[in-house]
Amino acid sequence: MRDTSFAPAPTESARREHPTLRDRIEPVVRAWRPLSITWLALLGLVIVADLLLVGPFEDGLLSRWDLDAAHWFVEARTATLDTLAEIGTWLAETITVSVLLVVAIIVAWRVSDNVAAPVFIAITVGGEKLLYLIASLVVDRDRPPVPTVGTTYATSSFPSGHLASAITLYGSIALLIALHRSRRVRLALLAVVGAISLVVALCRMYTGFHYLTDCIAGAVVGVVWLVATYHFVLLPAERAAANRVA
Q: Does pTM surpass 0.85?
């Protein structure tokens, strides 16, 4: 029988080709401090803004603009637009996001040469979802007082979780695809993400489930968290891989 007690350890090239779960999580572990600071700062900002909107600003100019916008969308409704708005909302419904998230993680795990790719997608979308859940439990802003198109879960109106999910899900996929692409391709991918996010925002306001300020807050949460995970998780892993090759 052959003695395997002195079998050589896996080479660096083998580790790159077959990274372990530890290899994939390591970039997140190294970035836990800036990620935590960013996430907590976003959560605090959302809660403070929510408290202001349901408190001192409830009868102010900002709230009146919100109501005017909500009523404008109601007056603009048609049967065709109702159907299109419901379809557009499905781009960021919970079931859609969940299925696409799982598929994206599996594909990134099997295809991407960036070890942090699947964890980057997971923490980008998951972190946003957790932030929305906690914020909605702390301060519960009511939905706009207008008739709605379709139904939704009885969660808080502020911020727009649909919009934040659209930005983090489609944005993380786009940034991952764009890693080794030209500047023109990167801009095109980000433009697609922007278009999807705009459609989701308009559909959520049109159907009566969100104020304009809800969507602005959702966009801020989605963009800031996406940029944070990109710079603190995905890019460092990409640079580390490039340095090893060099």
A: yes
